[in-house]
Amino acid sequence: MNIVAVRCLMETVTPQLGVEYAENMGISTMTKTDLGAATALGGLTLGTTNLDLTAAYASIANGGTYIRPRFYTKILDHNGKVLIDNQPETRQVLKDSTAFLLTDAMTDVMKGNRKFMRPGVSPISATGTAAALNNMTTAGKSGTTTNNVDVWFEGFTPYYTAGIWGGCDSNQKLKDGSVNNGGTSFHKAIWRKIMNRIHEGLSDPGFVIPDSIETAQICRKSGKRAVSGVCDHDPRGNAVYTEYFAKGTAPTEVCDKHVAVTVCAESGMRPTPFCPEKTTRICMVLPSGEDGTTDDSYFAIPGECPIHTDASTIIVPPNESNGGESPGYEIPLGPGYQPSRETSSEYGPGIQ
Fold first, then answer.
1. For 269-289, what is each residue's pLDDT tens digit?
2. Where is the signal peptide (predicted)?
3. Would residue 263 count as lying in a domain?
């Protein structure tokens, strides 16, 4: 993900615009030396404060509206007269659609067991799973510096935004008592315990979806529109999910990673002209020239059936005339027998 963030800043957003966004969202420590790739990963020359960073995340939680932090609302005299009314300073820094899409992405960060892989692969937790609240929708983002010298977690709910930093003045590597002494979880546990206490007795309304958002059924393997009857029959489970988009930006292309392939019912491989029974299975189209093995490789379009390769005999399959039982004999084939190929080796994007 670091590579994606850096390329996005350097090739699409530009460092100048990125710094401008950060300043608009209340980051007060930006300098000219921050006009570089490191800024995409939070590598600021002067760093930032927990207050600034938490206020920036709060602008996402507030639908793109930045509210300048304040430590009091008003000051009264002994008669109750208002001496100072500290009204909040606000400004719109993001479109509400952008704020919601960021919120939705950070909500996924909190979920556990997000794997979509073949059976036998261990569950995969996200970076924010350890901070997830008991009964409240939560969005958040974790962060670490090199060698776990600093650890951060910024998160929010429909009610509150909170940020936590862990580190030492001496910039030493943190240890949390875990097996690998990674020092990367204790701050999430603190954040979760504090926020669970704050949210006691509150209902969970979820995050409000603005009118500027639309949804589409997407294939999680291609990122394109799902093909009904194909993408939802991936061997690993249903690969279709509902994704959010700013109106007018949903993809129009359909999935080109899943294909319905005719295979031999016995071997599971592409049928030869001699395979007596065929069925359909969903396979993955691998990128041309792909090296190595990925999870998709286990579900690639198979080779040709190695069982039914000889035209000398064909086993008669069960049929209604004999009660569904195989007759137990073979049909001898003459030397001039030419089996029909029909569609035995064809495959297409969907089940017809």
1. 999 999 999 999 999 999 887
2. none
3. yes
**How many residues are given for the chain?**
352
Pick the last residue of a domain from 160, 175, 198.
198
- Residue 219 and residue 350 in one domain: no
DSSP states of 19-55: HHHHHHTT-TT--GGG-SGGGGGT--SS---HHHHHH
**Cα–Cα distance, 100 to 201 (Å, whole number):** 25
Output the six-digit token pair for 278.
């065929």
Q: Domain span at residue 316?
A: 257-352
Let me know if residue 194 belongs to a domain: yes
Q: Distance between CA atoms of 46 and 56, rounded to whole angstroms?
A: 17
Q: Tens of pLDDT along 152-197? A: 999 999 999 999 999 988 888 887 665 455 556 899 999 999 999 9
Contact between 191 and 185 under an 8 Å Cβ cutoff? The reply is no
CATH at residue 55: 3.40.710.10
